[in-house]
């Protein structure tokens, strides 16, 4: 075994960097591909989870951010700006301070999970709370970057998607080939586009023998790609994917169609149930948005729309600790057994018998 170097040095030949690019990295990527016995039993497929919550700031955003911030550093940027439902702002802040740049983050007022905001704060983010939703924030971020000397690090920045495609490389490297189906949550639609880019590139270079069908899932209250039209007031418990007008609309539709895949939606109830199953059965705590793909896969399996014996990879995009309030409220008030610091008393309270 050797030390994982981060996505730029692991996949340098496949990324838009040169010897002169200052590499800004937290050694992101190299995330575990974990077999999922429970999902495999439920679906009759061979299901693996790509666990992106173990990245340095707790979500897949770090893969793209290392490339975007390295390129911004190469270009001499002194500040970066992004719009975010939380994870991008956490990642942008961490990578920007590491590069000695000022992170400016635009978030929808009161609409992002507390721990994500805390991450932006501890990394010295200059935080603007925008009276509007994510789509308004993104419009504002684009305008600021056009007029002022700040580098835009949302996924409309092609370096972001270039970095994020490395997750597909890792999966092929781990499995020895591409899966039959790749499932993931969809919000601003950058990630599904990046994975498809990665699978196609690896396939074209003979690194895999097949390309997966791309299956994306949106939240029912924020499903513009399913409806084929923007959603004015997107609404879902999965705040990370509360997006009504995805920036990577065309490339996501292209990923769906070229791969023979689909983009569908799941309800908040299905999302929360999937989150609970993953934590309670598989030992994996993911944030609500991250459970949308799992919810979708289960839904398709339950309705006989998933062929058995397929090899399936589901990306779970962010760590459960990113949004503890939603998880806690779903489980109700936490009431541990009060016990004295005495083994016999504790055993009695906990129902242990000899
Ligand atoms: N899962 C999580 C945990 C996310 O934070 C996001 C997007 C997605 C899925 C959807 O990915 O946008 O590429 O389709 N979060 C962005 C943010 C919008 O600002 O952190 P996508």
UniProtKB/TrEMBL annotation:
NCBIfam families: thrC. Pyridoxal 5'-phosphate binds at residues 87, 187-191, 317. It holds the Pfam family PALP. It comes from the Bacteria. Belongs to the threonine synthase family. Residues 24-318 form the Tryptophan synthase beta chain-like PALP domain. Catalyzes the gamma-elimination of phosphate from L-phosphohomoserine and the beta-addition of water to produce L-threonine. GO terms for biological process: isoleucine biosynthetic process; L-serine catabolic process; L-threonine catabolic process; threonine biosynthetic process. Signal peptide: none annotated. SUPFAM superfamilies: Tryptophan synthase beta subunit-like PLP-dependent enzymes. This is Threonine synthase. Keywords: Amino-acid biosynthesis, Lyase, Pyridoxal phosphate, Threonine biosynthesis. It comes from Phytoactinopolyspora halophila. It catalyses: O-phospho-L-homoserine + H2O = L-threonine + phosphate. Its EC number is 4.2.3.1. The modification N6-(pyridoxal phosphate)lysine is found at residue 61. Its cofactor is pyridoxal 5'-phosphate. Gene3D superfamilies: 3.40.50.1100. It is an enzyme of class 4 (lyase). The keyword rRNA processing does not apply. One of its GO terms (molecular function) is L-serine ammonia-lyase activity. Pathway: Amino-acid biosynthesis; L-threonine biosynthesis; L-threonine from L-aspartate: step 5/5.
